[in-house]
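Worked Example 4.2. Consider the chain below.
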Amino acid sequence: MQSLHLQSIALALLAAVSLSACQSTPKGTDSLDELSTSEGLARVESKQVALLYVRPQASLAGYSKFLIKPVEVQFAKHWNPESQSSGSVLYRMGDVDREKIKSELGDAFVDVFKQEMAKGGYALVTDPGEDVLEIQAALVNLYINAPDPSQVAGQTRVYTTDAGEMTLVMQLHDSVTGQLLARTVDRQAASHQFWNWTTSVSNTADARRIIDGWATSLRKAFDAARSTT
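Applying the procedure from the previous section yields the following structure tokens:
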């Protein structure tokens, strides 16, 4: 039920929330504010993410491990690579291709978080426990400008200055009681200073860099909580 609850929030964001610059306040967040308040969360200012809600008096200090529930991935509603063409470039993305992207992105999320959290001594586990924090995450509004040139007819190279974007919706729960401790929402775009030859490898690298930023923020929050005890 908790995963379905997160999915409903993610889908609501797809339909109603317009996230502007990554460090600015998203528009249309009144319903999310109301939902979070009704769940006992309070909105707080953050320099790391666009929106952050936390439960007053809640602390990460008692957690030394974490588990990650299956990551939900949703493409932006207006993402249609089949209709985006430039010259002879036309992407052919079937359901199998889309599911492959979603699966690989979910796996990358877990892998990056595992590596970054390990820097602080926090282990990824698979079972709940008294010192285990449960992470529920959804990557929504996923938009990839050049999904994979291997899917393009002919031998065409694709160059972009904007690889794409995605929005994180993440909730932190006590793994034993299920109590919601925090919720965060943040949009990030992968861009290049100059025209870049875009490949599936570069897309994956861009996605991992974005995810690493989110993982680093959480690891630092763990470190800060531990330093105050």
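The first helix runs from residue 2 to 16. Residues 189 and 195 are 15 Å apart (CA to CA). Compare this with Example 4.1 before moving on.
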